[in-house]
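Predict structure. Chain length: 308.
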Amino acid sequence: MPSSVGYLMAALITAVGLFFVLWWMLVSGGDEAPWLPAGLAASVVLLVALSAREVVMRRAWTRYLLEHGIHHRSRNGGYQRRSSTGVKKSYPSGFHSAALREIQRQSAAAESTNAQPEAHLEVAQLCQEYLASVDEALRSGNQSHEKAMALKAGQERVRALHKHHLLTWARNQARSLTREAQQRARTFDKIETANKALECIDSALRMYPEEPELHDSKAAIGEFVISVKVAHWVELAERSAFKGHYRRAIDRYRDALFYLNNQVVKDEVRTAGKERIELEIAKLKSKLRSDEGDVKRPFREGASDEDR
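Prediction complete.
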């Protein structure tokens, strides 16, 4: 994790420096109240820096949860995974009941309207930890028949909650990232953001590989990435054609065709795109032959040296 103090100090120094630079420029320009616009600009810079850090840290925390899981998690004295030494741990009486109530409470909170996708991910991680601890308790064989039946019943409920919250997180997070990718200006940024959405879907697919909703979402995002690449090469081809570089334009249209032939793209979309691009290539080839004919014609017709 990056240093919070260092980042805040750097943001504060930048804002203060901007304030004095603008103040000095406005004073030199004869402004009657130079501190007002300078202070406003410095405040905006500071707010933007704090907001940006919040977004970045939230995404970093999500990535950390995906890669490492939650090792210490419970507000009321949570549970831990099995230690690396392989020693089985004993759980206090009522531990799993309390953990189940905590999961249900956080599940209800995650279902609220204003909840962020990360709230669903945290509940899914809690469920995963609970399931692991129940498996360990059942393997120990120290539970009575009634207690074991209660643990198995709770295990089934938590499995359902785990699947629900993990799929909800993957769907909402991927949807949010895809919308963000659509709003990006540069092609590289669009593809990079869409790939983050694909990472969310892939992380859920590792747990539920047969879930059709995840496969549909992955196909849709993959199709979006292909469409961005195709649009990029078509745009470059159109620019080259406008400048009269017909051969370069044809090559770039062929690059667009390469991505359009990807299996992710639907057949009807691929067919329509190929027809349009092949039509443009045919037009460019016709113009290219026409230009080459114009260059050679004076020599074939015996033009004068001055015309040549």
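Summary: Residues 68-88, 299-308 have pLDDT under 50 and may be disordered.
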